[in-house]
Amino acid sequence: MTIYIDIIFLENIIMNSIILYATSIIIKQKTKFFRIIISSGIGAIYSIALYLTNLKIYTSIISKIILSIIMIYIAFKPSNFKNVFKQVVIFYLTSFIFGGVALNLINNFNSDKISIKNGIYTGEDVFKVIILGAIFALIIVKISIKIIKNKFIPKDMYCNIKMKINEKTVETKAMIDTGNLVKEPITNIPVVIVESSLLNGIIPKEILDNLENILCGNLSNISLEIQNEYFTKLRCIPFSSLGKENGMLVGIKIPEILVQKDDEEKKTSNIIIGLYNKTLTKRGEYRALVGADLI
Predict the structure, then answer these.
(1) Which of 1, 41, 79, 204 has its CA 20 to 30 A from that of 251?
(2) Structure letter (DSSP) for residue 260
(3) 157-294 belongs to which CATH class?
(4) What's the pLDDT at 114?
């Protein structure tokens, strides 16, 4: 069988692009097309080197992990190590799904026309396997995501919380947000994000109506009495979620919060609540976000 390097290069760019695109769907992160192509091209060059040589430097697990990190960084430019780790793991899971589907197609159709060497598919019908494998793999990924959302989010991703504020108790339903790692930057105290409207009648209206002014340092609309009582409790909380990067929330320190999930309860003292002046969900399923570390 005659093997053409340019064909292998093109095939691997297509495969890598499909896997990266599927990864972007799962992590819900948009990226530019040229970044995916560049990342796929680097993976394709590595694949050709792996195909043509038997050097240990190309076949070692460490080399493959480094390659994956480089490809992920080029394609998605993750902001921190946690995102790198998460995206690499999803990239590998997607690759396994794609590889499993492709291998099954090879075993069942035209197995004598396709060969595999060092993980590289070569033969007459590789493009057919790539396209069919991509279609089936994307279908499997999308169905899996839908099943996970339907099965786990309604049951396992909600809890009830009770917040003690000014000697009063405020109770609401919250979503357990594993991505909510917002903490007060100085003390590292966890922050529970709460719709500010939930605290009407608990926290003075002058504060709730002037959250943006407080962040800007404009206190002209707030009486000196309220300033003296509350401003030692207020914090400026940086965040990069809720559809906004490099944002700021007004936070207020409260004595305690009680988190109830299933038949278990966990009480945590000295918590900060971040006051969010919009609604967290259109349907009103929950009105607060709680980090997994408080469960």
Answers:
(1) 79
(2) E
(3) mainly beta
(4) 56
